[in-house]
TrEMBL record:
It comes from the Eukaryota. It comes from Halteria grandinella. This is ATP adenylyltransferase. GO terms for molecular function: ATP binding; ATP:ADP adenylyltransferase activity. The lineage of its organism: Eukaryota, Sar, Alveolata, Ciliophora, Intramacronucleata. One of its GO terms (biological process) is nucleotide metabolic process.
Length: 304
């Protein structure tokens, strides 16, 4: 045991021990500081691990994506497909996004949608797509579905009468949305039920990606710079360009669900607002208008 002699300086062993204690304290302080920073970052991104208990459905949905329950669901079984790595909500969709999302859309028999940024109604900055099953929607179908199918059918008939060939992903606009900058395309060319192997599935996802890119190009937004709502079923794909997310006077907010005909009030004031206004006028206020440098090519040959 080391001892200090009277009148002498500190024993060397004691000095080393004190130095080690100081270093340990500094190390613990540094670790604690890093832990607090990491926790603060996680809290700012709810889609980074660790998740709340019961939220994560499948951690390895694919190599790049996870499947989560929506903590604030519009309806029961409302799920999220999120990227494992930090990607921005607003980044363009890619092949991996479709490969992760299409099986979920098919399994739940629902609608797939993506709110590309704050102006499109996105509430989180981490890239995520959403699926809502038809069985959990009032009437078990989207209010806009029949209108889209009728518009696509009429567009096909008009082109046939005019001896115009149908595009691979034929696009048109909805008469109901003629003041809203949007496009809708048919997905008849992609048959999900006929997929028997990985190659066919990857090819189908490439076709969905191509349709998505063509739709963005049609509304003059190939870069995704303007926030938009992307909506997709096995039959069609719809893109709407957004101007703002909410009505400033009362905070009534709309995302992709609104442009599929599903309006949700958060309180009595918003419910009264919905009942007092024409839904289409609300949708028009929050969307980009049907105008711009690309208007004439966009409308050419399309029946309104």
């Amino acid at each position: 045991m080391l001892q200090k002699k009277e009148g002498s300086g500190p024993v060397q062993g004691q000095g080393e021990e004190r130095g080690a204690n100081i270093q340990d304290a500094q190390q613990r302080e540094l670790i604690e500081r890093h832990r607090k920073i990491a926790n603060a970052f996680r809290k700012s991104d709810v889609f980074l691990e660790p998740f709340e208990e019961g939220i994560c459905i499948r951690d390895n949905l694919t190599r790049t994506h996870r499947l989560l329950f929506n903590k604030n669901p519009a309806r029961e079984n409302h799920v999220l497909i999120i990227t494992k790595q930090k990607e921005k909500q607003g980044d363009l969709l890619n092949q991996h996004d479709f490969e992760a999302s299409i099986p979920v859309m098919k399994a739940l028999n629902g609608v797939l949608f993506y709110n590309s940024g704050p102006d499109a109604g996105a509430s989180e900055s981490h890239k995520h797509l959403q699926v809502l099953p038809f069985d959990n929607i009032p009437g078990k179908k989207l209010p806009i579905h029949q209108k889209i199918m009728e518009a696509l059918k009429k567009n096909g008939e008009d082109k046939e009468r005019s001896h115009l060939s149908l595009d691979k992903f034929d696009q048109c606009i909805l008469p109901e949305y003629q003041e809203i900058r949007h496009t809708v395309c048919s997905l008849d060319q992609v048959k999900l039920n006929g997929i028997n192997n990985d190659y066919q599935f990857e090819e189908a996802c490439r076709m969905y990606l191509s349709a998505y890119q063509q739709c963005l190009e049609r509304v003059d937004n190939s870069s995704g710079r303007i926030h938009y709502n992307f909506m997709m079923t096995k039959d069609w794909m719809l893109i709407v360009l957004r101007k703002q997310a909410k009505i400033e006077e009362n905070g009534f907010r709309i995302n992709s669900l609104g442009y599929m005909g599903l309006l949700f009030a958060r309180n009595e004031e918003q419910l009264q607002f919905i009942n007092s206004e024409k839904p289409i006028e609300i949708l028009e206020k929050l969307a980009k208008p049907m105008q711009g440098r690309n208007e004439q090519p966009f409308l050419r040959g399309i029946s309104r």
